[in-house]
Amino acid sequence: MKKIISILCLLLISEFTFSQWTALSGGTTNYLYSVYFPDANTGYVVGSGTILKTIDGGATWSSVSSGTTNTLYSVYFTNAKSGYVVGEKGTILKTSNGSTTWITLPSGIKEDLQSVYFTSAKTGYVVGKKGTILKTIDGGTTWTALSSGTLKYLMSVYFTDALKGYAVGDSGTIIKTINSGTTWTALSSGTTRNLLEVHFPDASTGYVVGEQGTILKTITSGTSWSELLSGTTNILYSVCFTNTKSGYAVGEKGTILQTIDGGITWTALLSGTTNLLMSVYFTDIKTGYGVGAGGTMLKTINGGVTVTR
After folding, report:
1. Mean per-residue pLDDT for 2-14?
2. Structural domains of the chain, ranges and CATH numbers in brackets
3. How many CA atoms lie within 13 A of 86 on its CB side?
4. pTM of the predicted structure, to 2 decimals
């Protein structure tokens, strides 16, 4: 009997739970705020005076000279060579050679800029503090201030096509344009919590995440929003969907949530860290990256699912 019990104990001990998010080494302990991959192998991460680049799917990272010590909050590439980074004090940077060099573009303002999104090679938008929205139609050479209709801090901007776009921010703010930013209309979010990122997997279906584990969803292009049960009260900073059903949200205390049913249910994944996660990005349905505090960089190649063996 004792022998049988010992064997059972050994079998139980041998069952280990493995996080399917692997820690990557970027060579920095700085806060990392945004991650973006223009293709499956080439990716960029930005943070506190930091730009990192990988050309091998995150296996190795090199530090790139940004020419600024300002904190950088968001990165976006329109193709393999052309990319933009925005940050504090009105900082806008551009590369036209795949990050070999970055130039500072004149934003015309000193407000912190939080998010950047381009709808084409030439047309892009930036949002930030005090309801700031800037637009370029010449690849960043000049930027025009648009009237957002709000003074709330705008944290994220996303366009579903050349005409329709959304921005979200403090105190439950969601605004929408249907004419390439010429005018913006306030939408009813149903919450006063700060909203931190917006993502649309298709033209009508969108998600917003924010404080106290908030996840909002629309299936009517923003006309109405419903609050989803996230199962957490941790702040959620970033959301990314790989299709209309499969998506991820990340946030404080190493939180990673996954849905495979369009947000009806969310499952907490084992991230392997308790560090705050600021940004999540997937290059395909299985391969994704998360970045955050203390230089944290994570990667999954199986959709983040935890394996027990």
Report:
1. 41
2. 17-308 (2.130.10.10)
3. 31
4. 0.93
